Amino acid sequence: MSQPLPDDDLWCRRYRPSRTAAARLVCLPHAGGSASFFLPVSSALSPAVDVLAIQYPGRQDRRAEPPIDDMAVLADRIHDILRRQPEMPLTLFGHSMGAVLAFEVTRRLEASGAGPVRMFASGRRGPSTYRDESVHRRGDEGILAELRSMNGTASSVLGDEDMMRAALPALRADYRATETYSCAPEITVNCPISVLVGSDDPKTTLDEANVWAQHTTGSFDLQVFPGGHFFLTGQVYEIIRLLDRHFQAERADSIA
User: Fold this and answer.
1) Which of 27, 81, 138, 194 is the most buried (most CB within 10 A)?
2) Catalytic positions, written as ranges
3) Is the separation of the CB atoms in 66 and 40 below 8 Å?
4) Residues in the chain with pLDDT values less than 70
5) CA 90 to chain CA centroid, nearest Å
């Protein structure tokens, strides 16, 4: 492990820092999302778990920075940052775009000999599935319409035209990174993958979600929750309980 760099804190948000944590959870937001989306998870799991939420450039307090519109570049940056963090058992959780990013970061971590113990992929079809989507090529109104249709932003923000338009560069970059991403069917990771999906998610069918099973040599499980693409906002306590059970099992295994 190398020493952290000064700008690592721009990427890594610890809303409830813990000196006693024995495991780490890295949370990767959706397109247009920010680290603060995972504040409830951090509040619930600390101090037993070091919850590290990733803040991508181009949004909130990083708005002045150019956003990254390439999944590989983004995964490289996050991998390098995580490799500089104090070592402890690592779990990744990504929603939508964040799920694909979690997969790519996992590939890099495993290649460097420091793979996670599990990866949670939420609200996203398997990496090798394909849909002909081009939201990033739409005009501003088209991108905003897509965001509203997914209901992935707080209503106060959706109703604020200035805030919405300020978020457009990051949104367009995130959509481009996601929509230009591709993955061959034979590419796998070794860690177990747990997939979470909304029962009425227009972006991920159950068949598409099950494709994740082809991308791991470890175990695979799929859980369906009521709701659409952002089902986890209405199921936050269930998701937190799921994560808590995961970390309790990991602690028990380490003691046994």
Assistant:
1) 27
2) 96
3) no
4) 1-4, 6, 134, 136, 149-165, 256
5) 14
β-pairing, 220-225 vs 23-28, is unpaired
Residue pLDDT, tens place only, 88-107: 999 999 999 999 999 999 99
Task: Tell me the CA distances in angstroms from 238 to 50, 173, 195, 242, one per residue in order.
Answer: 19, 31, 14, 6
Alpha carbon dihedral 33, 39, 44, 48, in 10-degree steps, equals 90
Query: At residue 115, what are phi and psi to the nearest 5 degrees?
Result: -70, 160
Q: Which residues contact 16 (CB under 8 A, 6 or more apart)?
A: 42, 43, 46, 47, 51
| Tens of pLDDT, residues 114-165 | 999 999 999 999 999 987 776 767 777 777 777 776 665 544 344 455 666 6
What's the whole-model pTM score?
A: 0.91
Where would I find the beta strands (DSSP E) of the chain?
Answer: 12-13, 23-28, 49-54, 90-95, 118-122, 193-198, 220-225
Output DSSP code: residue 189: B
8 A C-beta contact, residue 103 and residue 121: yes
Q: How far apart are CA 32 and CA 13, in angstroms?
A: 17
Residues 196, 123 contacting (CB under 8 angstroms): yes
